[in-house]
UniProtKB/TrEMBL annotation:
Domain Beta-lactamase-related: 46-361
Signal peptide as annotated in the record: none
Record-linked Gene3D superfamilies: DD-peptidase/beta-lactamase superfamily (3.40.710.10)
Keyword Chaperone included in the entry's annotation: no
Short name of any one Pfam family annotated for the protein: Beta-lactamase
InterPro entries the record matches: Beta-lactam-related, Beta-lactam/transpept-like, Diverse_Enzym_Activities, TAT_signal
Transmembrane segments: 490-510, 531-557, 569-594, 606-627
Name of this chain's protein: CubicO group peptidase, beta-lactamase class C family
Highest classification ranks of the organism: Archaea, Methanobacteriati, Methanobacteriota, Stenosarchaea group, Halobacteria
Keywords tagged on the record: Membrane, Transmembrane, Transmembrane helix
């Protein structure tokens, strides 16, 4: 897999609940269905891949299902069940947390309501939602939710808790904080758990049933998915009776439509069959063939040359074969859900353990390399310098970090992946560097580049002659300025801290020294001016201390962790840096007055101005990361 930006990294983006993983995308191919591989060969292939994956990665267990429209040619477990070393994985019985693959069920349920005439993909969803008030400026449709193009900023809080007794309802989560729309609907695909959570609440509001109840009655029972459940801690997830589920788990989803499903591999194989067989499994229909076809068609792409989004599923090109995929991850589990409609093939792999993500990827790659082979095609060497090369170079960061209006911006900035550095080589190749990986690209048409291995495309979007976005698949990046760089801000913060401490610590020390020597103290104006700076620094320091204290103390009281489900009064804490900003304005006023009135000595005025400037930098950093009320 040469591409650093993988499906899991796009899904993470996220949130804090999604991690990295990959599915191969290589050159030209002719799909080969599982029916063309005899059962013994298929089982040997999966056995070898699963056992090697368990040996090479720190994974405890795997479950693999290969699906066809009318059957499951293979459903098998490897290793041991979660937190139960004496219980082997059984594809028919062992539960796995499927993470974000839960969204496939949610979008299927939503399309079922469309199929039955109870929803329309292009109608405003706020007309059907009774529990959530959405912004009215840019109306959101079901289509925009299913393609993650509603424009929502990334929201990590209120999505999960670490203790079962802190669990909250879906309604409580989606109403606790409605994320801002930072893009117009349809402009960009910005993956969020909130889009799926809101869709689940939409299903509940339209049907009058709880989301879990509706899905159980209308999907799981007809499809024979008897062991699938959205319960936060289902019996059987930890089969060993001596291990308490609550002690074993570290993740309880409070947005089950996005990340709360638990299922066996065989059950997920039946969902694959429904998508491969026109909505029918063993004579039970959950979707019309037209609705399945609608789910599988492309609904959004940032550029005609790039893979895009189906209805809740990600497109991936394996040569000339189109895959529809979704991956999922929680702290202990990893999953991959893959459809190859033109080959009548489905694949589901689930794993648990620290190395589950890599183990699942290895199995998926091994199976697809055999069943959906592809011969890579390489583009010709560049014939010159790319068009507008000087405008393309620079550093780009994920739009998730660039556009966030809440105090989660810092966490998103740290977790949304490394920036992409872009330059043009003397050979005419476009060169990108990210996460230590260097890739070279050849321009196929203006602003459209193909990887030298022929397996991926890179596209730039421009407006008014300037580059506004870089797209690597669905992953969208925006140009960074120097002050956006964490390294630059780190040095600024260090220099500003030293500058302010030279006053906050130096002034009292100098005053004490003067008293010790019997000299007069500073004039009253200097004292008031210095207290203004002290108020700035003290308020900012108090804010940091308050956040750290709450992060440590709240879990001790049995409350949810601060950054997963903050208390309703947490906003009051942000009054501290805001107060610091007010003090900084006052300090700046004293600095101006000192220069105009010729207060103090020249050296004292220069030093005071330096300290005020560095304190202002700290306030600016707090504002940059949305830590001020304003």
């Amino acid at each position: 897999m040469p591409a650093p930006l993988t499906r899991r990294q796009f899904v993470a983006g996220t949130t804090a609940a999604c991690t990295a993983g990959a599915l191969a995308s290589t050159g030209s191919t002719t799909a080969t269905a599982a029916t063309q591989t005899d059962a013994a060969t298929l089982e040997a292939l999966v056995d070898d891949a699963a056992r090697r994956a368990l040996e090479e990665h720190d994974a405890g267990g795997l479950a693999v299902t290969v699906a066809e429209p009318d059957s499951l040619p293979l459903a098998k477990g490897y290793g041991h069940a979660f937190e139960s070393e004496d219980v082997p994985v059984d594809a028919d019985e062992t539960l796995f947390s499927v993470g974000s693959v839960s969204k496939v069920v949610t979008w299927t349920a939503a399309m079922q309501l469309v199929d039955r005439g109870r929803l329309a993909v292009d109608d405003r969803v706020d007309g059907s939602l009774t529990t959530v008030d959405l912004p009215a400026d840019d109306p959101i449709t079901l289509e925009r939710l299913a393609t993650h193009t509603a424009g929502f900023e990334l929201r990590g809080r209120y999505d999960s808790v670490r203790r079962l007794d802190n669990h909250r309802s879906l309604e409580a989560s989606v109403t606790a904080h409605v994320p801002a729309q930072v893009y117009s609907p349809g402009e960009l695909s910005l993956y969020t758990n909130y889009a799926a959570a809101l869709t689940g609440q939409l299903v509940a509001d339209v049907t009058g049933d709880g989301f879990g109840e509706y899905v159980t009655d209308e999907l799981f029972e007809p499809l024979g998915m008897a062991d699938s459940t959205f319960a936060p801690a289902p019996d059987g997830l930890v089969p060993d009776p001596e291990t308490a589920t609550e002690d074993a788990l570290r993740f309880y989803s409070t947005v089950p439509p996005a990340s709360g499903l638990h299922a066996t591999a065989t059950d997920m194989g039946r969902l694959l069959r429904a998508h491969l067989n026109g909505g029918v499994v063993d004579g039970e229909r959950v979707l019309s063939a037209a609705a399945v076809e609608a789910m599988h068609r492309q609904w959004y792409t940032p550029h005609e040359t790039l893979d895009g989004m189906a209805f809740g599923l990600f497109e991936e090109s394996c040569g000339e074969t189109r895959l529809l995929t979704h991956s999922g991850a929680t702290p202990d589990f990893s999953t991959d859900f893959v459809l190859v409609p033109e080959a009548d093939l489905g694949l589901y792999v689930a794993g648990h353990g620290a190395g589950a993500s890599a183990a699942v990827d290895d199995v998926v790659d091994a199976v697809l390399d055999r069943l959906v082979p592809a011969e890579p095609t390489r583009p010709p060497a560049p014939t010159g310098t790319p068009a507008r090369a000087d405008r393309l170079t620079g550093r780009y960061r994920s739009v998730s970090a660039a556009e966030n209006t809440s105090y989660e911006k810092l966490a998103v900035g740290l977790l949304s992946g490394s920036p992409i550095e872009v330059r043009v080589a003397d050979s005419g190749h476009l060169v990108t560097e990210q996460d230590g990986e260097t890739d070279r690209w050849v321009e196929r048409e203006p602003l459209v580049f193909e990887h030298v291995d022929g397996d991926e495309r890179l596209v730039f979007r421009t407006a008014d002659g300037r580059v506004t976005h870089l797209f690597r698949g669905l992953g969208a990046y925006t140009p960074m300025s120097a002050v956006d760089r964490l390294s630059v801000q780190g040095w600024l913060a260090l220099a500003a801290t030293v500058g302010t401490l030279s006053g906050v610590v130096g002034w009292p020390a100098a005053r004490g020294w003067r008293r010790l020597r019997g000299r007069e103290g500073p004039p009253a104006s200097a004292g008031r001016a210095r207290w203004a700076v002290g108020g700035t620094v003290g308020s900012l320091a108090a804010f940091v201390c308050a956040v750290l204290a709450l992060a440590l103390v709240l879990p001790m009281t049995g409350a949810p962790p601060l950054f997963s489900w903050p208390p309703t009064w947490f906003w009051l804490v942000f009054g501290l840096p805001t107060l610091g900003a007010v003090f900084a304005v006052g300090a700046a006023g004293y600095a101006v007055a000192a220069w105009r009135g010729g207060w103090w000595s020249l050296a004292a005025r220069l030093h005071y101005s330096l300290v005020v400037a560095t304190a202002a930098v700290l306030v600016w950093l707090a504002g940059y990361w949305n830590l001020l009320w304003v």
